[in-house]
């Protein structure tokens, strides 16, 4: 989903806020965002069809707060996390809600 589409959607859809997931990958210094659209996660892209990248959660806040989005799900993905506390193989990710 392009950022311009998201902005238009938020203006038209009477305050219905989509689920936004900001993903942090182990070993990477930036964050990527996906938006839930029709029960599918769509990567957020700019008008040049490039993935929108954030250097901090503060940048995410600066973009989304003016659009009326007050929270996101932060998904931390660590492919090196091979074991969980209960001895079962972990799914290598953790989700948490972050208020903007």
UniProtKB/TrEMBL annotation:
InterPro entries: DUF6482 (IPR045508). Pfam families: DUF6482. This is Uncharacterized protein. It comes from Photobacterium chitinilyticum.
């Amino acid at each position: 989903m392009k950022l311009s589409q998201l902005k238009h959607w938020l203006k038209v859809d009477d305050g219905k806020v989509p689920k936004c997931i900001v993903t942090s990958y182990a070993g990477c210094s930036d964050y990527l965002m996906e938006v839930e659209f029709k029960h599918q996660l769509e990567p957020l892209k700019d008008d040049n069809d490039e993935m929108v990248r954030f250097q901090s959660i503060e940048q995410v806040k600066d973009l989304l707060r003016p659009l009326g989005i007050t929270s996101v799900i932060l998904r931390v993905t660590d492919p090196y996390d091979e074991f969980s506390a209960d001895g079962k193989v972990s799914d290598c990710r953790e989700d948490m809600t972050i208020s903007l």
